[in-house]
Amino acid sequence: MTKIAIWCRHKDDNIIGIGPNIPWHIPSDFKRFRRITENASITCGQTTYESFPNRTLPNRKIYVLTFDENYEVSDKKNHFIVNDAKSLKDFEEPLYVCGGASIYKMFMQKMAPDVIVDSCFMGDINSSLEGIPVDISECIESMKKNYTKVSPDYEEDNVITTIWVKKGEFVSQEVLKHITMSIINN
Ligand SMILES: NC(=O)c1ccc[n+]([C@@H]2O[C@H](COP(=O)([O-])OP(=O)(O)OC[C@H]3O[C@@H](n4cnc5c(N)ncnc54)[C@H](OP(=O)(O)O)[C@@H]3O)[C@@H](O)[C@H]2O)c1
């Protein structure tokens, strides 16, 4: 039951989105995300789910957080609605927490992930997008206080990725190895 938060934020301001969109387009970042999460279970908020092309991510089980009991997913075999986040507390398999901001914040406050995959985009964001900037600064403060960095800096296409583990927690070496190999084998 390892929980892993995985995000890509903008340097300094910790923005992860503007309106419903991610304000950069780095194909290698999407590929790294896919390598890490493929064939695994992920959870995300309804807004993020709606932003996936055709409301899906192939080869993943998606647990969509929504307060709407009648919400309809696009693939009833592989996608599941979750109205009560507490039910994810005792999730058996590794669970990747994939945003957006409200979900990262909720997990960091109430169900501290064991591992964080922290990617940081060092370039300029597309500020022409319409919408309110969404940032996860409070998650980054909590990460720096309560987690230990256990990896070197992996740089690719102006994105620096590091792995962090919750202080004092025993973390599955299998999960850490999988994440590391997925980052390295690009
Ligand atoms: N850069 C990255 O790594 C990254 C990753 C993911 C997302 N994003 C960005 O993040 C932004 C979206 O973030 P967001 O915070 O606005 O939306 P979000 O977290 O994706 O989704 C919010 C929705 O999730 C549901 N929800 C929230 N808390 C819940 C809880 N405790 N229990 C059950 N359901 C809950 C609610 O759905 P209902 O309204 O249906 O009840 C809520 O409206 C977008 O800009 C997206 O592109 C960036």
Identify low-pLDDT runs. Answer: none
The percentage helix is 25-40%
- From the 3D structure, determine the CATH topology: Dihydrofolate Reductase, subunit A
Instruction: List all distinct small molecules, including ions and cofactors, that are bound in this structure.
Output: NADP nicotinamide-adenine-dinucleotide phosphate
C-alpha termini separation: 27 Å
- The name of the CATH architecture is 3-Layer(aba) Sandwich
Oligomer: single chain
The count of DSSP E runs of length 2 or more, i.e. the number of strands, is: 11
Determine and state the CATH class: Alpha Beta
Q: How large is the share of residues in beta strands?
A: 25-35%
- Mind telling me the C-alpha Rg? 16 Å
Order of helices and strands: EEHEHEEEHEEHEEEH
Helix/sheet category: alpha/beta
The CATH superfamily is identified as Dihydrofolate Reductase, subunit A
By DSSP (H or I, 4+ residues per run), the number of helices equals 5
Please give the largest β-sheet: 9 strands, mixed
Rounded mean pLDDT is 96
Give the topology.
Elements: E1 3-10, E2 15-18, H1 27-37, E3 41-45, H2 46-51, E4 61-65, E5 79-82, E6 95-97, H3 101-110, E7 115-121, E8 133-135, H4 137-146, E9 147-149, E10 154-156, E11 159-166, H5 173-184
Parallel strand pairs: 1-6, 1-7, 3-4, 3-6, 4-5
Antiparallel strand pairs: 2-8, 7-11, 9-11, 10-11
The structure holds NADP nicotinamide-adenine-dinucleotide phosphate.
